[in-house]
Write a structure and sequence with these properties.
The chain has 553 residues and is of the alpha+beta class. Helices cover 28% and strands 21% of the residues. The protein contains 11 helices and 24 strands. It has an 8-stranded mixed beta sheet. The longest helix has 35 residues. The radius of gyration is 36 Å and the shape is flat. The protein starts with 13 loop residues before the first strand and ends in a 19-residue tail after the last strand.
Length: 553
């Protein structure tokens, strides 16, 4: 079963966004604090392992549940609570150990038909090493008509105090849906069971051959004499018992040497005897057929998981262009719907039902579907279509950026077309001919907004800088945390600095490594990203201030 890497794993990253029914929730209010404390607070609890023995993170808990969802057929998440029933986190419960507690019987209806009716049981039970542990149905303990399950006996009551052993925690049970399974889901690999079995058998056969545990197809050819009966018997025994042995030796005796001349009185020479082992069949062809068989199996197994070939390292049908398209389609057509399903379930059960929060839902980040250049072009085209008559905050939202802070020198409601108008007349002379187009400008930035000595981690620096040998570009600075790319241009008489927004690091590396920095900027950056202009360049590092004399690009 192929591992679904890449885009599928990133649905574990958590962000909050306004729920669809609320247009303007307060990010500083109690509702946001409630859900933020649940997911990221110091008192939140996330556990994995038997009896929740290992402290974990939300990402690890959800990752294990995802593996169960696809590999077992359903995911089981225990809601951890405080004494008063307030949720404080989730724990992964191995799905192979959980069962639905719904016993049914067939009853006859008034019209003579039969239907299933639940006669006992409620919630779920975990069976591990002969011990039973009960769980309630997620959300049942909340609301006007609560239901609680005894954690030791599974008995049901409408009050926690009525249970002699105390209430059980509740379980979020997410089946991988199938029309042939009433209460459970079906693993993704079921459709490929025969293919997987054939692939496993092929691997075993290949392993036996390479380890000398299988009997290859050979014939023993003797010329110049005849094998003795004892030698023939020894060969038969060797072949019959070869499997399981990595090395065997046989000593063969020859008699009845053949004559080398027409004279019957001449005796044959034992040195003329030759024993050969000749393969029967085309082994090279068998090897090729075996390889093709394995490749076909890989494709079939990946197909039932909806995984594109490039993600299982099958590159024979891929190139740089369609490989990216495969990943994007996988992210958008397979991962995004799965994310939406988990988002909706966790929002309804945890936020709405358990925490009483309607304003904020879950938003898993989707990677692999990013088309930054295409999105930048689309945003630019929309801004150009209205000739900049769009508020700055709306323009920033279109390119995936946060709105301007309240203390910014430009109001977020100011139209893009009006930003920087007071500077245009005086600064046109200093604008480089290779500077980005005015239509891509979404605002101004007062100063450099990154501390140069602020690391992302002990192993990774946050900023990267370089001086360019170019007739238009002086130097550049890339902020790995915000993905802002600052580029300083030659001006007349004053240099100008523009900040391109949401630039991937590979684009920055391409600019650094390009033979012509100016040409690379023109082809890959100038038209593809919106930008802000740096109005105060005094904080700009002096990199490039003493750069070599401009060269022709």
């Amino acid at each position: 079963m192929p591992a679904q890497e890449g885009p599928l794993r990133v649905w574990l990253r958590l962000r909050h966004r306004p729920a669809p029914e609320r247009s303007d929730p307060d990010p500083d209010g109690d509702a946001y604090k409630t859900v933020d404390d649940f997911w990221h607070g110091s008192d939140s609890k996330w556990s994995i392992g038997p009896e929740n023995t290992t402290v974990a993170t939300p990402e690890e808990v959800l990752e294990l549940s995802r593996l169960d969802y696809h590999g077992i057929g359903w995911a089981s998440l225990e809601i951890l609570v405080e004494g008063d029933g307030t949720p404080v986190g989730l724990a992964h419960v191995p799905s192979a150990t959980t069962r639905v507690r719904k016993t049914t019987t067939e009853v006859e209806t008034e019209d003579g038909e039969t239907e299933e009716e639940i006669v006992s049981g409620h919630g779920y039970v975990q069976i591990r090493q002969g011990r039973r542990r009960y769980f309630g149905e997620a959300g049942d303990r909340y609301g006007d008509d609560p239901t609680f399950v005894d954690k030791e006996t599974g008995e049901v009551a409408d009050s926690a105090d009525a249970l002699p052993n105390g209430p059980a925690n509740e379980l979020i049970f997410v089946p991988n849906p199938s029309p042939i399974s009433l209460y459970y889901g079906i693993p993704d690999w079921v459709a490929a069971m025969r293919t997987m079995a054939a692939d496993e058998a092929a691997q075993e056969w290949n392993h036996d051959i390479f380890d000398n545990l299988g009997i290859p197809h050979y014939a023993i050819k003797v010329t110049g004499g005849t094998l003795t009966e004892d030698s023939k018997e020894e060969l038969r025994e060797l072949q019959e018992n070869l499997k399981g042995e990595s090395y065997r030796t046989a000593i063969l005796e020859v008699e009845g040497f053949e004559f080398e001349s027409d004279n019957p009185l001449d005796e044959g020479d034992p040195k003329d005897v030759n024993i050969e082992f000749e393969p029967l069949g085309a082994t090279d062809s068998n090897d090729m057929e075996f390889q093709e068989f394995r490749e076909r199996n890989e494709h079939e197994i990946a197909k039932v998981h909806e995984v594109p070939p490039i993600l299982i390292n099958v590159t024979s049908t891929s190139n740089r262009s369609n490989s990216q398209a495969q990943v994007q389609e996988f992210a958008e057509d397979v991962i995004a719907p799965e994310q939406a399903k988990f988002e909706a379930r966790l929002y309804r059960i945890l936020h709405q039902t358990a925490l009483g929060v309607d304003d904020w839902t879950i938003d898993f980040e989707l990677r692999g579907a990013n088309r930054p250049q295409e999105e930048a072009r689309t945003a630019r085209a929309k801004i150009q279509a209205v000739r900049g008559a769009i508020p700055i905050d709306r323009a920033l939202e279109m390119i995936g950026e946060d709105p301007l802070p309240d203390d910014h020198d430009v109001d977020g409601e100011t139209l893009v077309a009006n930003v920087g108008a007071e500077f245009e007349a005086d600064s046109e002379a200093s604008r480089s001919e290779d500077a980005p187009p005015k239509a891509n400008k979404v605002g101004t930035r007062a100063s450099l907004s990154v501390e140069l000595d602020d690391p992302l981690s002990p192993e990774e620096v946050r900023t990267d800088m370089m001086a360019f040998e170019s007739s238009n570009l002086v130097s550049g600075l890339y902020d790995r945390q915000t993905r802002d790319l600052y580029i300083r241009f030659h001006g007349d008489p004053v240099d100008r600095i523009y900040v391109y927004l949401d630039v991937p690091e590979e684009t920055w590396q391409g600019l650094k490594n390009a033979e012509s920095h100016g040409s690379y900027h023109h082809e890959h950056i100038k038209w593809d990203f919106v930008y802000e202009e740096l109005t105060d360049t005094s904080g700009w590092p002096q990199i490039g201030a003493s750069a070599p004399a401009p060269a022709d690009d």
